[in-house]
Specification:
The structure is a homodimer. By secondary structure, the first copy, chain A, is mainly alpha-helical. The first copy, chain A, has a domain at 49-146: Arc Repressor Mutant, subunit A (Orthogonal Bundle), CATH 1.10.10. The first copy, chain A, has seven helices and two strands; from the N terminus they run αααααββαα. In chain A, a hairpin with a 7-residue loop joins strand 1 and strand 2 (115-119). In chain A, helix 2 packs across helix 6, helix 3 crosses helix 5 (87-99) and helix 4 (76-82) crosses helix 5 (87-99). Chain A is globular and about 70 Å long. At the A-B interface, helix 1, helix 2, helix 3, helix 6 and helix 7 of A face helix 1, helix 2, helix 3, helix 6 and helix 7 of B. The structure holds a DNA duplex.
Chain lengths: 169, 169
DNA sequence: TTGACATTGTTGCACCTGCAATAAACCTTT
DNA sequence: AAAGGTTTATTGCAGGTGCAACAATGTCAA
């Protein structure tokens, strides 16, 4: 396209003869946060495409279902912590799932502020269909990544560890 | 007394005496797509927190600015492809940036369907402040990851490669 | 040239999202 | 027990999002 980039303003404050300027050369395609976000978005979309049309649930709903399947009756706050979602997001996903008949809400006896979210039989049946899809998807992903799969997982472990970037101080 | 722990649904297709059922034991915390999405969300949020308050721009806007800085005058469709965003998202981010005075829109002479988005001087000045923040953030991220940084990048390369999960067939 | 089809960017729409405000329940101190 | 503060879940609101529809422009074969 443009042969000579013109160098419009030869900043006199740069006395060095360095040929590459990291500020000039900055490229989104090599920026780790961008790459991570783009890869995650693609992956989530590809996975969601597997179940959205057939089962009519969204990603937040999937996360709530998966955690309920794993953990039994739990509160909204518990899902908030374990499924990396804002509590309002959890609350709304839970309401949609309840409306659809997949989960039930009950108040905790010993602490009436807490809810006890729980899969209904219909919800368990849904999970019997959803989990194989998820496991299959992960298997394909691991196969595609090859030996990089474990390394990716290890790196994600670092990024997900508490500390810098943790939800709340 | 049979010490068998109930085994609620003895799937007849599983003749083995395996003690763990991957469907029962499924845990979101070990699910690669979830881990990837959560790590990306944390990272993006942490990065956005660095510039949102001070500069008032969002992630889509940052991406548009970064690509314009790197590539010069380009169309919406070009950003759509290179910054992994829906064209409507690009269009709206560009409108906000134009309103804020950071970029200019012009119609391409040879193809009047195309726009030529371009940084204004104000936009270039903004990038002179933003890029060091981005470079610093990435440096901290790489330091935190240690040797896992390169491996993460390689794995992301696999996931971002065209093919399965590519935007459009 | 014309007419059919493709591409580009914007917008209407329904929905989702994060944040702050809120009500209800709980806890602690007096 | 009452007051003041904390925790939990929900909701109002302003704005963002994806998708489909659309108008404008371009392409190409007949």
């Amino acid at each position: 396209m443009t042969p000579t980039p013109a160098r419009p303003m030869p900043e006199p404050s740069e006395p060095s003869g360095g040929q590459t300027n990291p500020l000039q050369d900055f490229d989104l395609a090599g920026f780790l946060p961008y790459r991570l976000a783009a890869a995650a978005a693609r992956t989530s979309r590809a996975f969601a495409d597997r179940y959205r049309e057939e089962f009519g649930i969204s990603i937040p709903e999937w996360r709530v279902l998966a955690h309920l399947h794993h953990a039994g009756p739990v509160s909204v706050r518990d899902i908030e912590a374990r499924a990396d979602m804002e509590k309002s997001k959890v609350s709304r996903a839970a309401s949609r799932l309840e409306r659809a008949g997949y989960i039930s809400k009950a108040v905790n006896d010993t602490d009436k502020r807490l809810l006890e979210l729980q899969l209904t039989e219909s919800g368990r049946e849904l999970m019997r269909q959803l989990l194989p899809v998820a496991i299959q998807f992960q298997a394909e992903m691991v196969e595609r990544l090859g030996p990089a799969a474990e390394r990716l997982d290890a790196a994600l472990g670092v990024l997900l560890a508490p500390g810098p970037g943790g939800r709340k101080e």
